[in-house]
Amino acid sequence: MYCKNCGNPVEQGAAVCTSCGVPVGQGTNYCANCGAQLPPEAAVCMSCGFAANTVQKAPAVPGAKSKMAAGLLGIFLGGYGVHNFYLGYTGKAVAQLSIAIAAIVLSAISCGILIPLAFITPIWGLVEGIMILCGSINTDANGVPLAD
Ligand SMILES: [Zn+2]
Ligand SMILES: [Zn+2]
Q: How far does residue 8's CA lie from ligand 1's centre (Å)?
């Protein structure tokens, strides 16, 4: 076990490097496995193949909603606001569902004259579904990033 900050050996189980005082596991200058010096931003140690700086990737947030699921719900069922219910955007979801129901009722009582209204929310949902898949919409209603 080597200090990733200064490259000096540290005892197994030590919390802080005795040479430089940096907490063990912090730093990106040296390989923790063999102590070899690492080039900046190296992901893998060239000397031993040990994964050097994998901790830099943000861990998946527990409870994150699936981007793929939300996008597909928007594309196929977006006319009823299903993707927004899924993501927690309840106000927008209720609006889409209400407009969808109103459009069905209006097109029925108008003998089909107002049937174009029935296309409003499916197109709206489709656009939002694509925006979710493209990453234009990338958080749920609580600001939690969507998982890939
Ligand atoms: Zn050190
Ligand atoms: Zn190494």
A: 6
Alpha helices in 28-110 (DSSP H): 67-77, 82-87, 90-109
Q: Are 30 and 14 in contact (CB under 8 A)?
A: no
- Report CA(117)–ligand 2 centroid distance (Å): 64
The DSSP output letter for 54 is G
Residues with CB under 5 A from ligand 2 (ion): 31, 33-34, 36, 45, 47-48, 50
1 alpha carbon, closest ligand: 2
Say whether pLDDT at 71 is over 70. yes
**Domain spans of the chain?**
1-59, 67-134
Average pLDDT value over all residues in the chain: 91
- Whose atoms come closest to the Cα of 35: which ligand? 2
**Residue 54 CB neighbour total at 10 angstroms:** 9
User: Whole-model pTM?
Assistant: 0.58
